[in-house]
Design brief:
Chain lengths: ~200, ~200, ~200, ~200
DNA sequence: TATGAATGAGTCTTCATTCAT
DNA sequence: CATGAATGAAGACTCATTCAT
C-alpha cells in the first residue's frame, strides 16, 4: 500500500512542479512565448511527459488559474476572518485584490485582460474554467458591499451596479499597473491608496 | 493623370484594408496568434503582398496604433472646441475615451492590455511609436484637470497623481467592458455613467 | 535618326550599368546572396526593368562572364603583342591569368570553381556560355607551349597533356588564393612567383 | 539492453544518412541552393526531423567537414605507417590527397572551393570547425617536406613557402578535375601522375 | 510512468518573375 | 522604355502533439 501512496504523491509532485514552472515562465515570457518544450526543459523532463499530466497547453493554464485564484479567495477569506469593521474589510479586500494581481501579473492578465473571444476555439471545459475563475471573488465583493450598507456606512443602492462599477475601476488600477509597466507612474503605493480612497469615498 | 490617382487610391485602400483586417484579427485572436498569412488569407491576397505595404508585422501594429489614436485625439479636440464648462468638458472627454475604446476594441486592447514585455524584442522606433500613442491623450486629461482646478470646480491637488488615478479607473471601465464581454453586466449606459459620476464626484 | 541612336546608346548604357553593378555585388556578397532587387536598388531602377535587358538572373551572369573573359583574352593578347621570347611570354601569360583571377574573384570562382553539375537545369545556351568562357584562353596556353617547344626552350612532349597539367596547377594557385582568403599565406607575390618558377622549370 | 542499442544505432544511421545526403546535394546544387527541405525530401523525412540531429544548417556542414577530413587524416597516417622512403611517402601522400578529393567531391568542393566570405555570418565555433578541417593535413605536408629535406632528397628551402606552393598546385589538380568534369581531359591517371611528377621534380 | 523520435502545420520573410499599364 | 503591384514558391526554423516502446 505504501508503494501506491508514494507513487500517487510523486505523481502529484510532478503535477505541481509543472504548474509552478509554467507559472514562472508565463510571467517571465508571456503565454504565447512559452512552449511545452521550455517547460519540460526547465523541469528536466521530456516534453511528452507533460501530456501524462495535462491534456494540452490550455489545460495547464486552466489549472493554473484555478489554483491561483483559489489563493485570491484564501486571501480574501483571511481578511474576512479578522472580523474588522465592514468598511475596513472592504478597503482591505479591494487592496488585496490589487496586490494579488500585481503578485500574479501573468495569471491576472490572462484571465481578465484577454478578450473572451480568444477562447472561442478552446475545449469548452477549459474555457469555462478560466473564465469562471474570478466569479467567486466577485461574489465576495457583493457581500462586502451589502455588509457595508447594512452597517449604514455607505449609501443604499443597487448592489449589483455598485459592485460591477467598483470592480471595473479596481480592475483598471490592477491591469493598468501591470500592462503599462513602463509608464512613468508616480509612487505606486500612493497611487493605489489614493485611488482606493476615491473609490470608497464615492460610495458614501 | 487620372490613372495615377486611381492607383494611389487603390494602394491606399489596400493599406487600410490590411490595417482594418489586422485590427479585427488582433482582437479576435490576440497579437501572437495573428500571422501575416492569416491577414493575407482574410483579405484574399498573397502574404508577400502585405510586405509591399508594411515592413513587417510590428510595422502593422505601429501604424495601426498611430492611425487609431489619431482619431481619439480628434474626438477629444472636438469636445474641447465646444467651449463647455471645464467639468462638463472633463466628463465628456472621459466618456469619449470609453466610447472610443468600445468602438475600437481591437486597437484598445492591443495598446493598453498587452503587457509591454511582449514587445521587448521590437525595433526601438516601432516600440516608441506604439507606446507614444496614448501619451497625447493623457496630456489632454491633465490639461482638463488643471482647467477644472483653475475654475475651482474640483479640489486642488497633485495633477499628475489625479490624472494617473483617473486614467487607471477609466481604463478599467473600458478594458473591463471589452475583455469580459460575456460577463452579465447591468445596462452598460447606466454602468458607465454611474462610474463616471463616482469618478468625477470624488474629485470635488 | 539621331534620336534612335541616342536611344540605342542609352539602352546600351543601362545594360552595362546592370552588368557592372551585378559584378560588384557578386564580388561583395556572392552570387546566391545577390538578388535582382539588390541590383535594381543600387542602380535606382525598378527590378522589372532589368528584365527588359536580361532574360533572367543567369543571363546576367552569362553575359558578365563573357564580357569579363573577353578582358582576359585582351590581356593575354597584349602580352603576345609585345613579341617577347616564348618562355617570357609563357611566364607573363600564366602570371596574367592568375592576376586576372585575383582581380575578378567572383567571376573566376563562378566559372571555374562551380561544379558543372550545378548548371544542369540552366537554359542550355547560358550554361554553354558560362562554361565556354575559358576555352579561348586555354587555346592560347597550348599555342604558347607549342611556341616554346619550337624554340627549343622546353622539352618536347604532348602539348595537350602539358597544357592541361599546367592549367590545373595555375588554376590551383588562383583558386586557392581566392577561396582560402583567410588562410595565413606567406607573401603572395613571392608565393605566386615561386610557384610559377617551379611550374615553368618543370617544363624544361 | 538490445533495444537501446538498436535505437542508438538507428539514430546514428539517420544522422549519417543526413550527412551523406547533404554532401551529395551540396555538390549537385551548391551550398546556397540546398535547403533543409531538400535534404529532408530526399531522405523522405519531415524537415523538422533534421533538427533532432543537427542544430541548424551550418551544424550539418561543420559535422560534414569534420567527419570527412578525419578520413583524409586516416589515409595519410596509413601511408606514414608504411615507413617508406621520404620522397615516396611525399608522393603517395599528395596522390592520396588528390584521390581523397575525387572520392569525396562534394566535401572537397565545399571546404576548399567555397569563398570564405560565404560563411561570414556563421557562428564562430562552427566557422572554426569548418576552417580547421584541412589544417591537420597541411601540417602533415610540412612534416613530409621537412623529412625529405632532412634526408637530402629535395633542396633546402623555406618549408612554409614550399608547402603552401605545393598545396596550391595539388589543390588545383584536385579541384580542376572535380569542377570541370565535362572538360575533355586526357587520361586522368596520366594527367595526375604527370603533374605530380613535375611538382615533386621541381622540389629537387 | 516516462521518453525519444517523428511529424505536419505553422512562423516570418525573401525572391525571381510576370503583367497590365 | 519603364514600372508598380502582385504572387507562388521557397527559405530556415519552431511548436504542440502523437505514438511506439
Amino acid at each position: 500500500m505504501g508503494v501506491a501512496e508514494r507513487r500517487a504523491r510523486e505523481k502529484d509532485d510532478l503535477r505541481k512542479k509543472i504548474l509552478d514552472t509554467a507559472a514562472d515562465l508565463f510571467i517571465e515570457q508571456g503565454y504565447e512565448n512559452v512552449s511545452m518544450r521550455k517547460i519540460a526543459d526547465r523541469i528536466e523532463y521530456a516534453p511528452s511527459t507533460i501530456y501524462l499530466h495535462f491534456r494540452d497547453k490550455v489545460d495547464i493554464v486552466a489549472n493554473l488559474c484555478a489554483a491561483t485564484f483559489g489563493e485570491l479567495d484564501r486571501r480574501l477569506q483571511e481578511i474576512l476572518d479578522l472580523g474588522l469593521a465592514p468598511l475596513e474589510t472592504l478597503h482591505r479586500s479591494l487592496r488585496a485584490y490589487i496586490d494579488f494581481g500585481l503578485d500574479h501579473p501573468s495569471h491576472y492578465v490572462f484571465v481578465f485582460c484577454t478578450p473572451t473571444s480568444m477562447f472561442k476555439d478552446m475545449e469548452q471545459s477549459s474555457g469555462e474554467q478560466i473564465y469562471g475563475c474570478g466569479m467567486g471573488s466577485f461574489g465576495r465583493l457583493k457581500n462586502g458591499l451589502t455588509a457595508c450598507m447594512a452597517a449604514g456606512v455607505i449609501r443604499e443602492g443597487d448592489v449589483e451596479l455598485l459592485a460591477q462599477s467598483t470592480w471595473l475601476m479596481v480592475h483598471g488600477i490592477t491591469a493598468g499597473l501591470i500592462c503599462q509597466a513602463e509608464f512613468p507612474f508616480v509612487d505606486k503605493e500612493m497611487l493605489i491608496e489614493h485611488s482606493l480612497g476615491r473609490l470608497i469615498g464615492s460610495l458614501r
